[in-house]
Design brief:
- The protein is of the alpha/beta class.
- It has a single domain, classed as 3-Layer(aba) Sandwich (Rossmann fold).
- Helix content is 33%, strand content 26%.
- The chain has eight helices and eight strands, in the order αβαβαβαβαβααββαβ.
- It has an eight-stranded mixed beta sheet with strand order 3-2-1-4-5-8-6-7, with helices on both faces.
Length: 207
């Protein structure tokens, strides 16, 4: 893994990786198979830890030499001390948690900064599909039938920004995502990303 992050990481993970400075203390919640965590450890020498619900993914992470434990974002984040990590990361997961507001509050408490990526249920294709077909839409970012989706709290980008503000968070950066990757910087309160972005990445901190 010596090439640019974008060559082997999902677009949102590559963008998050660019936000992390060298030797930072990082907690990756819902770290999956550990691709981002491994990249950060190898290329930026971070002190990286992970929490993952799937035991299969935990085993894959441990096999890669990563410090990852099995845990549930909804139940286990309260056990971590406040401000012990420089960055807390939650990628494409907040919509799959049972209590998104509680999870976000814990991440803001644990990390000095928090990076979150999520899909946008307010994208125009989703709106049009629901309008014309009258059924829960499927897109590349939300590619599940309604009855087998892990996403239990679908939201628009505007919804997430409202939640962040309600939790007392300051949004330091916001990046829009499209089919090919990062579309660019955006204003968190702008209307157009909520319509045209397929997802977004937010860098937050507690005010």
């Amino acid at each position: 893994m010596n090439g640019p992050a974008s060559s082997y990481l999902r677009a949102d993970l590559a963008a998050i990786a660019e936000m992390i400075p060298e030797r930072a203390r990082v907690l990756d919640v819902g770290c999956g198979d550990g691709a981002l965590l491994e990249h950060l450890v190898r290329t930026k020498n971070v002190d990286g830890r992970g929490v993952e619900l799937s035991q299969q993914n935990v085993n894959a992470c441990v096999a890669r030499g990563l410090a990852v434990v099995q845990g549930d974002a909804d139940a286990d984040l309260a056990e971590y001390p406040s401000q012990v990590f420089d960055f807390a990361i939650l990628s494409q997961t907040i919509q799959a948690t049972e209590k998104p507001a509680q999870v976000l509050a814990q991440l803001l408490r644990i990390g000095r900064q928090t990076a979150i990526s999520l899909p946008n249920f307010g994208h125009w294709r989703v709106r049009l599909s629901l309008l014309w077909n009258g059924r829960m839409p499927r897109t590349k970012a939300l590619d599940y039938y309604w009855y087998d989706t892990p996403n239990i709290h679908l939201c628009t980008l505007a919804d997430f920004v409202d939640l962040a503000h309600a939790q007392g968070a300051v949004i330091d950066r916001a990046l829009a995502l499209n089919q090919t990757g990062v579309a660019g910087e955006m204003r968190p309160d702008a209307l157009s990303p909520n319509l045209f972005a397929q997802g977004a990445i937010y860098l937050l901190r507690k005010s």
